[in-house]
Amino acid sequence: MLNPERLNLLVQLQALKTMRAVADVSRLSVSTVSQQIATLEKEIGRPLIERVGRQVRLTPLGNELVDRARPVLNDLREIEDMACSESMEVRGAIRVGAFTSALAPLAAPACAAMKTRFPRLRIVLNELEPDRSLPLLDAGQLDVVFSASFAPATGKTGEPEARGRMSLPLLSDRLCAVLPKSHPLADERSVHIEDLADDIWLQEPEGTYLSNHIRVLTERAGFEPDTAGVISSYPAVLQSVANEFGVAVLPWLATVANVEGIGVVPVEPAVSRTVSLVTTSSQLSRLAVRQFAETARELAEELRIPQ
Q: Which domain of life does this protein belong to (predicted)?
């Protein structure tokens, strides 16, 4: 019988692309990962990886083996959870990944509610953007992921397709202008991106999916923002706006912190993103994961998002 731990390393390699990445998440040395996969190849009698320059990739057989092994490995985790308790109570562990603006209003409250309801359940929450958390989900290192994607203004959804993923929509968030209270538009019901063309902006670092999307919007509006600060922390952005250092455009979820001295004004025409809980079909068969998904859905329904 094939060793499940070796199969799991191959699953991780398909998702994470490099031996080093697999070694880091598995807390093994690169040489150990390489040796374990080589042993798996000997057991099967055919190559599962091939070198392309300095990189490695899975052979067609390796990819097929991963596709077949992933649900089996998830089933083994489910059996392990079931075996922990004859009463079938919710216990075991759930590993959660959540992007920054989902942490305070959704992810952390969902984890806290689950821990209160099911004290024997262990939950680990990781702050990760979707481009990092989704590959870890594919690699079996996370169980559920809060993800977000804009409508395809850029021609891309921002969320690559992958076999075995299941996406459960939670809510539709929208972009808002974050303005100092002294700004002439701070009390308006809505603003257009071009209304902010003469302002000083605060933005996320270049290359994030939000900054990429806003760049497309401002280019369409015919201007390039005059940027005074590049800040990745949303609370720092909100406080900087309150101190009249600049303006920002953020998803509404990123503005829920109680910061005085700012106005949050929806952008028109509406620019929305879908916030989803992403897991796998095998993980969703676990009672704990289904309960977590239901808890997240209930919390999302309680949020009053501008329409």
A: Bacteria
- For CATH 3.40.190.10, list the domain ranges present in the chain: 90-171+273-302, 173-272
CATH number of the structural domain 4-82? 1.10.10.10
pLDDT in tens, the chain (307 residues): 788 888 888 888 887 888 888 888 777 888 888 888 999 988 888 999 888 877 888 999 988 998 888 878 877 766 766 665 445 567 778 999 999 899 999 999 999 999 999 988 889 999 998 888 998 898 888 999 999 988 654 434 334 445 678 999 999 999 999 999 999 999 999 999 999 999 999 999 888 878 888 999 999 999 999 999 999 899 999 999 999 999 999 999 999 888 899 999 999 988 889 999 999 887 887 888 999 999 999 999 998 777 6
Which residues lie across from 227 on neighbouring strands?
A: 201
What distances in angstroms separate CA 30 from CA 13, 19, 241, one per listed residue?
Answer: 12, 6, 45
Give the three-state DSSP class for 117: helix
90-171+273-302 — its CATH code? 3.40.190.10
